[in-house]
Write a structure and sequence with these properties.
By secondary structure, this protein is mainly alpha-helical. The protein has ten helices and no strands. It has helices spanning 3-16, 19-37, 53-83, 86-92, 97-127, 135-160, 163-180, 192-198, 202-214, 221-245.
Length: 246
C-alpha cells in the first residue's frame, strides 16, 4: 500500500481508539441536538429564522461537529505527536511531515462527514427534520468550513506542542463558540453584547455558511470569504511553526 493511504488508515484506527475525540465528535453534538431540539416546538419558529427549531439546529450542529474536530480532536492528537517527538522520528525516517499531518487532516475531514451524517439520520428519525434545500451550497460551505477549522487545529497543535495544553486551549475556544455561534440560544434572543461577540467567532461563520443554503436562503458569501481567509492565515502560520519547531 502507498505511504499516504497507509498513514491515513493507521490514523483512522488510532482516532477510533481515543474516547475523548470520539465523544466530542459524535456523542456530544448528537446528545445536545436531541435535547435542545426537543426543548422547542413549531410555534417557536419565529425565533429560528422562520423554520422549525430542529431544522435550524440540525444545520447548526453540522457546524458544531466541524468545530469539535478542529478545536479538540485534531490538535490534541497532533500536539501529542509533537510532545513525544513522533513528528521528529517520522522526519528522521524520511517520511515527509506533510504526509503525517495530511493524513490527520483527511481523517479529521472523514470524521466530520461521518458525524454530520449521524446527526442528519438522528434528526430525520426523531424530529422529521428537513434535509438541505440547496445541497450544493451546503457541500461547498461544509468543505470550506472544515478546511478552516482543520488548519486552526494544526495551528493550535503547533503553538501548544503538548497534549494537555492543546486540550485546554481547544476546550476554551470550543465552548464559547458552541454557545454563541447559533448552536446555543438563537441569535434573536441574545443580548447586543453577545451578538457582537458571536459576529466575530469562526464557528459562527461556519454555522451561517451551512445554515443559509440548508434552509433555502442562498449562499453566505461573506462567511465563506472569511473562512477561506482563516484557512490561508492559519495554514501559513502553522506551516511556519512546523518548520521552526520540528
Amino acid at each position: 500500500m502507498p505511504l499516504f493511504p497507509k498513514l491515513t488508515w493507521t490514523e483512522l484506527k488510532l482516532f477510533a481508539r481515543e474516547p475523548f475525540a470520539v465523544i466530542f465528535t459524535f456523542a456530544f453534538p448528537l446528545i445536545t441536538l436531541v435535547v435542545i431540539s426537543g426543548s422547542f416546538s413549531i410555534e417557536d419558529a419565529e425565533d429560528f429564522r422562520g423554520v422549525a427549531p430542529w431544522d435550524y439546529y440540525l444545520a447548526s450542529y453540522v457546524g458544531v461537529v466541524i468545530g469539535a474536530v478542529g478545536t479538540i480532536a485534531l490538535p490534541v492528537h497532533v500536539a501529542a505527536y509533537a510532545e513525544r517527538g513522533i513528528l521528529r522520528r517520522f522526519r528522521a525516517s524520511s517520511i515527509p511531515t506533510w504526509s503525517v499531518l495530511g493524513a490527520q487532516v483527511v481523517v479529521g475531514f472523514l470524521m466530520a462527514v461521518i458525524g454530520s451524517v449521524v446527526l442528519m439520520i438522528a434528526g430525520r428519525l426523531l424530529y422529521d427534520a428537513s434535509l438541505p434545500e440547496q445541497p450544493f451550497g451546503v457541500l461547498v460551505a461544509f468543505v470550506i468550513g472544515a478546511a478552516s477549522f482543520l488548519t486552526l487545529g494544526l495551528l493550535i497543535a503547533m503553538v501548544t506542542r503538548n497534549a494537555r495544553a492543546a486540550q485546554a486551549v481547544g476546550m476554551l475556544l470550543f465552548f464559547p463558540m458552541f454557545l454563541l455561534s447559533g448552536a446555543g440560544p438563537p441569535p434573536d434572543v441574545m443580548s447586543d453584547a453577545m451578538q457582537s461577540v458571536s459576529d466575530v467567532l469562526p464557528l459562527t461563520f461556519v454555522v451561517r455558511a451551512i445554515q443559509d443554503p440548508w434552509i433555502g436562503e442562498g449562499q453566505d458569501t461573506t462567511s465563506l470569504v472569511l473562512l477561506v481567509a482563516i484557512t490561508v492565515v492559519a495554514g501559513a502560520i502553522a506551516g511556519w511553526l512546523m518548520k521552526r519547531g520540528i
